[in-house]
Design brief:
There is one protein chain. By secondary structure, this protein is an alpha+beta fold. The chain has helices at 7-15, 38-52, 79-92; strands spanning 21-22, 27-32, 57-60, 64-69. It has a single domain, classed as 2-Layer Sandwich (Gyrase A, domain 2), CATH 3.30.1360. Helices cover 38% and strands 18% of the residues. The chain has a four-stranded antiparallel beta sheet with strand order 1-2-4-3, with helices on one face. The protein is globular, with a radius of gyration of 13 Å.
């Protein structure tokens, strides 16, 4: 089983992840996007998640998209969630959009 991060470790990770916050044992980021960008963005994030064998909750919201990262088998936030958050940030900055 993957080790859960404690509150201090989560806070340290969040300090390096702009736009992310902690919510109910998960890392969460809401991103405003236009509806026509939802498909490519969710597919790009899913590609990154597949590479890590880790799957986020991705939801369409009224104003965009919400990413919620938690390792369900561990019951909270693990290093895998922090890694995926960083990869999502790369996708959002355009660093991986041309993949796949």
């Amino acid at each position: 089983m993957t080790e859960l991060l404690n509150r201090d470790e989560i806070d340290t990770a969040l300090a390096a992840l702009e736009g992310w916050h902690s919510e109910e044992n998960a890392l969460v980021r809401d991103v405003p996007i236009t509806p026509d960008n939802f498909k490519w963005l969710s597919e790009a994030v899913q590609h990154e998640a597949d590479e890590l064998n880790h799957h986020p909750d991705i939801d369409k919201t009224d104003n965009g998209i919400r990413f919620r990262l938690s390792t369900h088998s561990a019951g909270g936030v693990t290093p895998k969630d922090v890694e995926l958050a960083a990869r999502i940030d790369q996708v959002l900055s355009g660093g991986t959009r041309d993949k796949g």
